[in-house]
Amino acid sequence: MTAAAPPRSWARLGLGLAALAAVACARDVPRAPAGVLVVSQEQQASWIRNFNPLTTATSARWPTLAGIYEPLFVFNSVRSEYVPWLAVTHEWTAGNLVLRLTTRDSVLWSDGRPFDARDVAFTFDLLKRHPALDRRGVWGFLSAVSAVDERTVDFRFQRVYIPGFDEIAAQQIVPRHVWSTVADPVAFANENPVATGPFTEIRVFQNQVYELGRNPHYWRAGEPHFDAIRCPAYPSNDRANLALVFDEADWAGNFIPAVDRVFVGRNPAHHRYWFPLTGSSIFLYANTTRAPFDDSRVRKALSMAIDRALLVDVALHRYSRPADATGLSDAYTAWRDSGIAAAGDWVLHDPARAGKLLDEAGLPRGKDGLRHLPDGKPLRYEVLSVAGWSDWVRAAQVIARGLQEIGVDASVRTYDFSAWFQRVQEGNFDLTLGWSFEGPTPYPFYRWLMSSATVNPVGVASMGNWHRYGSPEADRALASFEREPDPAKQRALCNEMQRVFVAEAPAIPLYPNPSWAEYNTSRFDGFPSEARAYADPSPNKFDRGECLLVLTTLVPR
Amino acid sequence: MRYILERLGFYAFAAWAALTLNFFLPRLMPGDPATALFARFRGRLAPEAMQALRETFGLTDAPLLVQYFTYLGHVLRGDFGISVAYFPSPVSQVIGTGLIWTIFLAGTALIVSFAIGTLLGIVAAWQRRGWLDTWLPSTLVFLGAFPYFWLAMLALYVLGFTLRWFPLGHAYGDDLTPGFNFEFIADVVRHAVLPIGTVVLATLGGWLLSMRNTMIAVLGSDYVNLARAKGLSPSRVMLRYAARNALLPSVTGFGMALGFVLGGSLLTEIVFSYPGQGYLLVQAVRNQDYPLMQGIFLVITLAVLGANWLVDLALLWLDPRTRESS
Question: Which of A2, A24, A131 sits opposite B240 (nearest CB)?
Fold first, then answer.
């Protein structure tokens, strides 16, 4: 600090800094060029270049699964239907043991080489050779996949398993001529993808932003209608929301509190959102290996104690509705039987009836106001939730208050995520909040709620069916569903599952999660909305290719 | 010389202890990376994926001690393994994306804050009970007492959101390609004003106070009085006699702070979506990404040790007494 620089160089430095500061303070209007769709889906501080569509680690960038690569069929969850994509038709043959797919003609890879059935067979063969890539577990039911000719692929099954179609249909297909030379496809970052999707050319890849240009050989003539997708890295939900409010992002799938005021209010003409209730249903799980939760009357009584209207208000800003007794979200509107749902009156808030049911179940109220087990122990339970998941914590508080009213001494207990999940998986809990599983049909949903096949003993980590409930009646319906290709009969079997669920109350449905989707119509037109419900509006619905429906529909203004 | 060797030995031991803790602490957490990843999907990933996930990460059941020695061997060869959260990128590459920005952001903020704070502290002590001394320390300590998060959000809201003087985040504009040209550098500076400014504002008070207080003590000592009596110029007395000695505790503090720079200013980086290292650490913990955690902690540890080493050397130079004793 004693080394003094000559005065003149100090002046020069000062001048330079002043000039820099002047430029630096210039007003900022960040806007992407026309025809570039700015999407915020993943929350990261900086991007890692990975476009591997097969890796289960799901660390590939967002457009990889629905934008760069494409599945055989796209599942439209709003309409509950399959849209032919890289495959055009499917047919069950050989006593439903062989699924025959016809692939689309005249599809080119982004490097100009033709796509054909052998690419499909190759992709599935890759999954067989590298179990780490078999995210949907297709080789648990397949025995062989072969290309019959350039446009036909046969999938031979080990046993009749109709829901297997859903897993095959969703598989992204990779080019044989590129991937056959990849030594380790599991650890392959695929930095320059060759694919069939609408956006395949990586124009920019920097730590805080990347941009994908359109596929010069895209098979859907004239589509996509715009030049590029740009993904800026935002590390948090708040920051992504700010980008939406400031017209920096055109499309996002975040939770925004008070969306009408915060987002729409700033620019009602162009700031839009649509939160269809097609997400996973949230449940209160009671550990059915522990008394008295093994008694369906007790589970129903707990359910009646919950004021779901209040819960949805408090926990979810009214973005959802109280669940009905089938537990099915709006993703299964085509499957839900409203008569059966209405018969399940145990989801209605009715503390008096809940009390009566508990009396019947042999859990009378004591002098202390609490109900007691036959051995005299009071009903004192913790409702588990995850620390920091504010929606769940508030929901748990509403539940605990409801249970206290009917004489159950319930309190909320939050755990750090990993600690919570370990307890839940091992069945080490009384009551906990939890999610449920999604799929194109209610089959996986109900399978993980009440199939005996998914019950693990307490202490053994279980990926689903944490409440450990198996119903022989449900097993029969699920088993028949696995062998039933006829849609009408599938519906009847699904009604049977709903009937069993409503009768036995294996778990206590709370509310269906919304599918978050916000968009800005000042630069792009054609986003799905309630009035134009052609697909799920959320960029988060990439796993079964649904985002492709949106990306190929959007038009720049 | 013996002093330097002794210190080196101590650092080697500290590094080994840190490496060991690095290995065992994350493994005491419940759960494993595959489950953490699976659960992140909250129902969108079918349970069937678990098997594939375990295959991917090659989760091993080898005894912990065997894993520990394998780990030590790999670290010595500079191989931190493959990140789980950012599979299949190697840890070194993942850390590389954020490191430079963290060093720039937190390093600049620290140097600016230290330089300004110390200078102000010198001046405040020199003109004790002057207006600067009366107002500045209390104001800055007041500002520093606010939760940093709040201060940063306020700055972002007022200067970025409402007035739109500064960008809302990122290290540079999305339309720019990094390169050594005036446009890019100006943009980086513009993006850095708010994050660095808020950090400086929040930490300035500490440097100022520490310098001012030591300086006041030093100003009362005999050799300063002697220097004055000899008729040396005030600036010479202030800087070469008083400040040089008063600087010692501050330099130690600076060294410590320098080491922690690499930990990333987590809150700063999150509020201003700065592509630095702090967020990586959060991701690593959230995903139980042991290799990434170990990598980041190792980098932080080495930085702290390295900074301490530099402080030792600086003290040797600043304080003749340490030279004497060694």
Answer: A2
Which chain A residues touch B243 with a CB distance below 8 Å? Answer: 1
Give, for all 326 residues of chain B, the pLDDT tens digit. Answer: 677 788 888 888 988 888 888 888 877 777 777 777 777 777 667 777 777 777 777 666 677 888 888 888 888 887 888 888 887 788 888 888 888 888 899 889 999 999 999 999 998 988 888 888 888 888 888 888 888 888 888 998 888 888 888 888 888 887 777 888 888 889 899 999 999 999 998 889 889 999 999 998 888 889 888 888 888 888 888 888 888 888 888 888 888 888 777 765 778 888 888 888 877 888 787 777 888 888 888 888 888 888 888 888 888 877 777 776 65
Place of tokens 């988060």: A540
* Cα→Cα distances B311→B13, B108, B253, B305, Å: 18, 18, 9, 10
| Neighbour tally for B55: CB within 10 Å | 17
Query: Residue written as tokens 């007035």?
Result: B163
Beta carbons of A508 and A285 less than 8 angstroms apart: yes
**Complete DSSP assignment for A478-501:** HHHHHT---HHHHHHHHHHHHHHH
The Cα A356–Cα B28 span in angstroms is: 46
Residue type, B41: F
Return d(Cα B27, Cα A172) in angstroms, integer: 35
User: Could you give the 3-state DSSP secondary structure of residue A124?
Assistant: helix
H or E element: which one contains A18? Answer: helix A7-24
* Cα–Cα distance measured from residue A243 to residue A540, given in angstroms and rounded to the nearest whole number: 17
CA distance B270 to chain A (A): 6
CA distance B194 to B100: 18
Instruction: Give the integer Cα–Cα distance in Å for A415 and B189.
Output: 42
pTM, 2 dp: 0.85
How far apart (Å, rounded) are the C-alpha atoms in residues A18 and A25?
10
Interchain proximity B44–A280, CB inside 8 Å: yes
Contact A418 B171 (CB under 8 A): no
The number of C-alpha atoms within 13 Å of B162 and in the hemisphere containing its C-beta is: 7
- A519, β-bridge pairs: A251, A272
Structure tokens at A54: 């097969």
Q: What is the largest CA-CA distance in chain B?
A: 85
Which residue carries 């005999």 as its tokens? B222
- Give the type of residue at A236: S
Give residues with Cβ within 8 angstroms of B2, minimum separation 6: B326
Give the mean model confidence (pLDDT) for residues A115-126.
96
Distance from CA of A537 to the nearest CA of B (A): 16
Q: Identify the closest residue of chain A to B283 by CA–CA distance.
A: A44
Reading the block at residue B261, the tokens are 């720079």
Per-residue HEC secondary structure of A131-170 comes to: HHHCCCCHHHCEEEEEEEECCEEEEEECCCCCCHHHHHHC
Burial B171-210 (b: 16+ CB within 10 A, else e): bbbbeeeeeeeeeeebbbbbbbbbbbbbbbbbbbbbbbbb
Q: From the CB of residue A398, how many other CB atoms can be counted at a distance below 10 Å? A: 22
For the question of an ipTM over 0.85, the answer is no
